[in-house]
Amino acid sequence: MLDKELVSLLLREDVALSLSTEGYSVSQWRSEIFTNLGRYSTWLDKAMAGGFLSDRLAYVFLSGYQAALHAKFPMLNPDKIAAFCVSEQGGNRPKAIQTSMQGEGEGYKLDGSKTFVTCAEDADELLVAACDFSVSMARPHIKILHLGGIIEGARIEEDKVLPFMPELKRGRLTLDGCICPASSLLEGDGYADYIKPFSPLEALYVMAAGVSYMLRLARLYAWPESFIEQSFAVLVSIQGADFSDPEAVENQIFISGLREQVKALVVSTENADYWADSDPDVHKRWLRDKVMLMMPDRAHGVRLERAWQSLRKVPVA
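Given the sequence above, the corresponding structure tokens read:
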């Protein structure tokens, strides 16, 4: 069940939406919302609370994304924004990761380029996927390095601008002989232990933040009580899920069902009566950005099919 503090926020506390200007920045969101979630005990609770308190879907997404990162990587500073730098020109599969790492003194030297890094320009800490080409393996030897503060040899430039959630800039990270200490290297396989399990975890946390935001809109604009009930039920089901192993078969089934529930809630907001007394800017941003909660995830589609295949092979007792 949801924590009492979170239930109070979602169902009882004032929901007045403090509208910010179009220039409202990521740093403002961090100082006003992200760093003030200490009363909530888990990162999943913080994702829901952050989504509820945000005034637009860009920061709803960021609430879920940052909470998922901090849950997966507990060494991150809880008050700082982080960026997971994985994708390159060829994608994010192991063979596509060409950023190299090699021993340099008592640390490592990184060379390469990352694309589509969310909040790269605002990030205080970077988690970088790199390949150790000195290790001969059937599959590329991917590792994750944790970089913080001012990093010599690292350059961030603005990358693609999407037609939705324009407040969140996507950056290109270039690493040119970037030196990092040995302590920055995380233990384990970078792909199997970090990149793969993060994807379903991120999906869960972002949907949790998104449903929390919709619940706030429902309370704020007096949408049908049935909408609030359905949203709250979804959040309770999310809280009850065991995601200690995000890649577990049952979690792929759960994520798929959850996506359908979230899509149904989003589709129901197309009722014009829902927005009769709303702020025009809130409605306009919602129409522009709601695709974030309905986008297909091809990687999840692959995981889901494999999950069903494994279940079909299980003999009936």
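The longest strand covers residues 107-118. Try to locate this feature in the token string yourself.
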